[in-house]
Amino acid sequence: DCGCVYPLSVAEGIQEGDIFTKSVDDLKTILFWTQSGFAYLSGDIDESFLEDIYEIMMDRNRTHKKRFILMSKNQYIDNHFMTKQDVCIEKRYLFEYQGDTINNDISLPSGYELKEINKELLIKIHGTIVPSLFWKDNNDFLKNGKGYCISCGDDIASWAFSAAVSTKEIDIGIETNPKYKKKGLGMIVANRMINYALEQGKNPVWACHYKNVASEKMAEKLGFLKTDECTIIKVTN
């Protein structure tokens, strides 16, 4: 109920991740923990399982390399974690794509070039929302994912890519180099990823933190409609 593409990316074996159950024999409660750190619950949730999740989230022995961000639309889960002083609960907006046609109307500013992300371009991409956050490694992304970028000389100015892939959906990750903001580059490269998803017969997916106004506005301009929201539960920074 917080979006299917991330847990399905793991369940379908497309992307790396972990799947936890209560026991080998009890599969009524499932936790999906993706490579990006996003975590999703399914099934019958009880307090003991939530306490186990809390211990994973706290990572007191520093055994995990990836973050833990739990998605929830269940008030019982939210209430449980509201009692934890070292946990914060925020909101995440969920969008659905309303368009149904491919839009190839791309007009780049002079000096910029739209390219498919390959091995050479991938190592030039540096930022917060990058393929390495969502995929096991570069080879894994290049094999099972897809992305596009806009270059300006030797710089990668903006990029959009498949942050999560299932057999039915593609979640779009996007970022623009601060040096090249307010040029409309993000819209262009995100639109190319939308087109790619549609070409594959899959639904493009968009979500963002509730304070990310720029992402919310871009989603609306690209043809997405905010249809829902969920809570995100994580350790306080």
Give me a quick take on this structure.
With 237 residues, the chain is α+β, with helices and mostly antiparallel strands. It is 28% helix and 34% strand.
What does the model show?
The protein has 237 residues and is α+β, with helices and mostly antiparallel strands. The chain contains eight helices and eleven strands. An eleven-stranded mixed β-sheet has the order 1-2-3-4-11-5-10-9-8-7-6, with helices on both faces.
Quickly count the helices.
Answer: 8
Mean pLDDT: 94
The largest sheet is:
11 strands, mixed
Question: How many DSSP E strands?
Answer: 11
Helix/strand-derived category reads alpha+beta
* Gap from first CA to last CA: 26 Å
Q: What general outline do the C-alpha atoms trace?
A: elongated
User: Beta-sheet strand percentage?
Assistant: 25-35%
* N-to-C SSE string, H for helix and E for strand: HEEEHEHEEHHHEEEHEHE
Low-confidence parts lasting 5 or more residues at pLDDT below 50? none
Gyration radius, rounded: 18 Å
Helix proportion range: 25-40%
Going across the biggest sheet, name each strand in turn.
1-2-3-4-11-5-10-9-8-7-6
Note the main attributes of this structure.
237 residues, alpha+beta, eleven-stranded mixed sheet, 8 helices, 28% helix
Give the helices and strands, then pairings.
Elements: H1 5-11, E1 17-21, E2 29-34, E3 38-43, H2 47-58, E4 69-72, H3 75-82, E5 87-97, E6 113-116, H4 119-122, H5 131-134, H6 138-144, E7 147-152, E8 155-165, E9 169-176, H7 185-199, E10 203-209, H8 213-222, E11 224-235
Parallel strand pairs: 3-4, 9-10
Antiparallel strand pairs: 1-2, 2-3, 4-11, 5-10, 5-11, 6-7, 7-8, 8-9
